[in-house]
Amino acid sequence: MDHLLEIHNLEVKFRLRSGEVTAINDVSFFLDQGERVGLVGESGAGKSVTGFAIIKLISKPGFISGGKVLFEGRDIAGLSIEEVRNIRGNRISMIFQDPMMTLNPVLSIGTQMTETILAHKNVSRAEAQAIALDKLKKVHIPSPEKRLDQYPHEFSGGMRQRIVIAIALLTDPAVIIADEPTTALDVTIQAEIMDLLSELCESEKMALILITHDLGVVSQVTDRIIVMYAGRIVEQGLTRDVVSNPRHPYTQGLIAALPESQQRGKTLCQIPGNMPSLTDMPQGCSFHPRCELVMPICKEKVPELIELDNGNALAACHALAKGGAS
């Protein structure tokens, strides 16, 4: 069975004065219709770059240097700008981190929504307004008829993010890529937005790629988790399995650092050190300078993803290959 979206050996590089650096290295995963997948990792792991590469939004000096991105069987990486535009916004929509960067402050919400619909669909302005109103209702905006005439600054942060989600829904996409959609919101509003995304995935049969550093959010919303570190996938599997039994030392560290994993009054756990920079990537496994299980081979050879649990999980760790880190 073909998957809705397939990423094969994706590689993204950036041209710097000092030479080319690799931001995404040999990343492969798939997404099925209606499925919710979480891309997880610290800042600098390559999550957002992966999301941008999927819809060919990598700007210079970055470029896709290898691999394929197959959407409904077509390789997006090989399409012209015009052909990509027919997919981006139509079939694949993206929700960005900061709604105020997405919304135009000098145009009413109704104008922004109707212009988006008219740019992508062959409908009348009256039909476009009806679609905009329907989508505002779907994201539970109160008094949506009045809200269409208001401007972004008249909404709270949570309401603005709901409007951004409504705009992403305007073309009835098959996939939504949500890049840290709750970062700027308080905890209660975060939960509401994530509940909303889950509800929409079920009701609209949409697939979701949720990009976040927050494992707590991912564990509540997604079907599968893909953990990234320094531009590579280090672990992936069913959400419940990865959260309850993480196999890679990095994933174990992320879960141990969650506040809910701690005992009251104890110091919070943390992974020592920092994510390596693209210009100073360690040889071998990029996680080895921070890993408690480091062996000589870790400093020499990049570990390959190995199948675990009868192929239901993958992890890239030399200790696992030797029968450890379980």
UniProtKB/TrEMBL annotation:
**InterPro entries according to UniProt:** AAA+_ATPase (IPR003593), ABC_Ni/Peptide_Import (IPR050388), ABC_transporter-like_ATP-bd (IPR003439), ABC_transporter-like_CS (IPR017871), Oligopep_ABC_C (IPR013563), P-loop_NTPase (IPR027417)
A cellular component term (GO) from this record?
plasma membrane
Q: Does the keyword Nucleotide-binding apply?
A: yes
Q: How does it sit in the membrane?
A: Peripheral membrane protein
Q: Extract the coiled-coil ranges from the record.
A: none
Q: What are this entry's molecular-function GO terms?
A: ATP binding; ATP hydrolysis activity
The alphabetized list of GO BP terms reads: peptide transport
Q: Please provide the record's keywords in A-Z order.
A: ATP-binding, Cell membrane, Membrane, Nucleotide-binding, Transport
Asked whether the keyword Membrane is assigned, the reply is yes
Which parts of the sequence belong to the ABC transporter domain? 7-255
Its localization reads: Cell inner membrane
Q: What is its main location?
A: membrane
Q: Which domain of life is it from?
A: Bacteria
- Which family, according to the similarity comment? Belongs to the ABC transporter superfamily.
The protein's name: Oligopeptide/dipeptide ABC transporter, ATPase subunit
**What organism does this protein naturally occur in?**
Desulfatibacillum aliphaticivorans
